[in-house]
Amino acid sequence: MDSKFNLSIVAVFVSVLFLNGCATSRSVIDVPMQVSGEISKSNGKEIYIGSIADKRLFETKPPEPSTPSLDPGEEQGDKIKLRAIARKRNSYGMGLGDILLPEGKTVNLLIDEALRQAFTESGYKVISSKEQINNNTYVIDAQINKLWSWMNPGFWAITLSTEISTNISFKNNSSSDNKIINVKASDTFQSGSEDNWLEVMQSALKTYKTELKLKLKE
Fold first, then answer.
1. Where are the domains of the chain?
2. Which of 129, 143, 157, 158 has the lowest CB atom count within 10 Å?
3. Other CB atoms closer than 10 Å to residue 55's CB: what's the count?
4. Taking 90 as the threshold, does the pLDDT of residue 89 lie above it?
5. Is 121 in contact with 213 (CB distance < 8 Å)?
């Protein structure tokens, strides 16, 4: 049998393998936060999470899969962008369907939950009402610059990655601070199944929490 024919058969097999569990249409994946259960002794400080702004920039046909984009054949708009967390691709890197969070859940809520867990696990008291704010309360505002997952094709396996980047400001009556958190998680898989996407997304969120807790000690 001709060697070129053999390579063609392998290429087709790999393409099918990559698309297994990875439909070309838009998908919905819930990304629950994993609670570590780690609670530090109270440090006597309290915070209030104010605003969380999604400042991610979407492009129509980005040259890199790590840049957020949406399937032009599907519904667009700001409400969709707030739920968008990934774009699927075929074995040639061509953009396919999007991956969204479920209705009622946004990237802002993902970061909100990550912040609450990180601060609680670091010994902070997280208050939920503006009426509880006093002169010593740190008001936290966050800007999401990136929260995106993507696929890079390979010959025998694909690489799924998730990157998260935020600016977090801390302000109370007497001081202010700003912390930049950048993390990335990647792993290789045989297919783009929902479980594999979820695994790498949760890995990035766990790393994000760990990095934030380290920053809080500085």
1. 3-21+42-60+106-216
2. 129
3. 12
4. no
5. yes
Burial class (CB in 10 A: 0-12, 13-18, 19+), 157: middle
- Cα–Cα distance measured from residue 134 to residue 155, given in angstroms and rounded to the nearest whole number: 58
The predicted model scores a pTM of 0.86
With a CB cutoff of 8 Å and minimum separation 6, the contacts of 131 are none
CA-CA-CA-CA torsion sign (116, 117, 119, 125): positive
Spatial distance between the Cα atoms of 186 and 118, rounded to a whole number of angstroms: 22
Upper half-sphere CA count for residue 148 (Cβ side, 13 Å): 23
DSSP state of 66: T
Per CATH, the number for 3-21+42-60+106-216 is: 3.30.160
DSSP at 10: H
Q: How far apart are CA 177 and CA 218, in angstroms?
A: 11
